[in-house]
Each structure stands twice: as structure tokens, then as C-alpha cells.
Amino acid sequence: MAISLRQLEYFVTVVDEGSFTRAAELLRVSQPGLSHQIQALERELGGPLLERLPRKVRLTPAGRTALPHARASLAHAQRASSAARRASGVETGELHVGTLYSISTGVLPGALHTWRRSYPELQVHLVEFPHTNELVAAMEAGQADVAVGPVPADWDGPCRVIGVEEFVIATAPDALPYPDGTQVPMVDLAQQEWVHYTARSGLSDILNTACAQAGFTPRLSVRTEQSSSALSLARAGIGLALLPGNVIPKHYDGVLLRPDPPVLRPLAVYTRVRPDPITAAFVSAISVETLVTPTHITERLGSLPE
């Protein structure tokens, strides 16, 4: 007897709900039927996956090993179904887009607006991560149809570079003796305090690298995971924040500076296999419409030197 997707769905639902009763209610099946399918799965895998306790269920060691594979199999099946519908011309369903938190704030809104004008019936599900490594792993596991993020190393599938993201330094008014739009050597900021990022965030690596190249380690004032929080903290005078220029709103009334040397991050859009027509339309939309450094930032800082 082969393992079925239904059995895997039942197993994952019991784990997520922590109860056979709640899982049966959510799945709209009888509790005996649910138990029968779980037992069949356990027989197929050679041992118990769940320990039935009076008020909850607990994963056995075999269950802990099987759970991530069950989730991945369900994700692959969902992606395959969605891709098949899109390839056959059915313009309903969801396009799952993997990305980073800062990119979903800065780069994606304009591109998604353009793309949905052509496909208004398709929904977009953003699968967001703090670090590039997590985004690449999610794409490899089939958790998204297409990814928008830093150029991945050694990617086997289709990959198109869409531009270079410029980072800027945000500060509170009068925090530094530099007027808005000044290009400031990073080495001159060695004694300043910085709004840093948690280790889970890829922005942490970017700040650490920029400071290390200037010969210093950034002095920490506070840590955050989100670029939007870093901007607010910088505006409040908590410290300097290095963040993508495309997350800065037009109405930002703090001071923006350009680090010298410039801090840049190439961005790409990539898929595992050749995109179906609707995914390809998204790739084209983001490639054409992406404004990596928006106009209101270049107006304040000027264009990057050649």
C-alpha cells in the first residue's frame, strides 16, 4: 500500500492541531476514519508517528523525522496543482512568490500592481523570509513558484538579474553634521551607534560587511528584524540605520546619506524550472517595472557615480 497525500495531510493536521478530535473537525472527517488513516500511514512507515496522550498528542522520534518530509510533499503537490492549472490557461488560483521582508516592502508592490492588471483573478501569496539562505532553501523545497531576492549562488534553474539595490543611511535630523544627501565615508562613522539587525536577518550581514570593509565593528544601540522598524528607530534618534533605499517613503523627514563606498545588492528573479506562462508574465513584469532605487531617493542623493 503506497503512502497517500491524504494520509500526509491528516498526519500534519493532527500535529498542528495537537488533537485527533480538533483535526477531525477541521478536516470534516470522522475521528475513527482519521485514526484509521494515521494507523495505515504508521504501518507503511514501519512504526508509530504519534504518541496518544490523554489531552494531547506528541510526536515520536520517527514522527519528528517524518513531519518535515510530509510538509514538503504537501507543498510540492500544491505547487504542482497550481502550475498545472496556470499552464492549461486557467487564470484563477494563487501564485506563490518567495522573497525577503525588505524586498516585499520596497521592490514588490509596484511590480505586483503591474502584473495583477493583466491577471486580476489570480491571487498572490507572499512567502517571506529574513535571510537569503532561507529563501533559497524554501525555493528548493517547493514552497514558492518564483523567488525575488539577492542573486543566489550556484542556482541550477532559470535566473534573471533585475537590478542593483542601493542602500542608504537614515538618521534623525541634526544627529550628524552632514546635510541631507551627503556622501559620507563609512570610516567617518566608526564612533556612531547603529540600529542593527538580528542574526536571522540578511541585513545584519550587509551592515557588518560594510563596516568591516571600513575597518570597524558597528556599535550597537538596538536590534530589529525589520527594515521598516530600523527606519523608525533611526528617525527617533536611536542610531544610524543602513537599509535599502526603496523602503524609504517619500514623506520621510529624517536625513538620508549615501555611504562611501556605496553599499549595493544585486537582485534577481528565479524559478526551479522553465516558468509556465503566468509565472513568466510575473517575471517580465518585475523585470520591466522594478525601480530598485526610486526617483524620490535619487532626487535627494543624486545618481550613483559612474
Polypeptide structure, described:
This protein has 306 residues and is an alpha/beta fold. It has 3 domains: 5-75, Winged helix-like DNA-binding domain superfamily/Winged helix DNA-binding domain (Arc Repressor Mutant, subunit A, Orthogonal Bundle), CATH 1.10.10; 78-163 and 266-291, Periplasmic binding protein-like II (D-Maltodextrin-Binding Protein, domain 2, 3-Layer(aba) Sandwich), CATH 3.40.190.10; 164-265, D-Maltodextrin-Binding Protein, domain 2 (3-Layer(aba) Sandwich). Helix content is 42%, strand content 23%. It has helices at 5-17, 20-27, 31-45, 61-87, 101-106, 108-118, 132-140, 202-213, 227-235, 277-289, 295-301, and strands spanning 50-52, 57-59, 93-100, 122-129, 146-150, 159-171, 183-185, 193-197, 219-224, 241-244, 255-260, 264-270. Strands 3, 4, 5, 6, 7, 10, 11 and 12 form an 8-stranded mixed β-sheet that branches. A two-stranded antiparallel sheet has the order 1-2. A hairpin with a 4-residue loop joins strand 1 (50-52) and strand 2. Helix 1 packs across helix 3 (31-45) and helix 1 crosses helix 4 (61-87). The longest helix is centred in the first third of the chain and has 27 residues, at 61-87. It is elongated, with a radius of gyration of 24 Å.
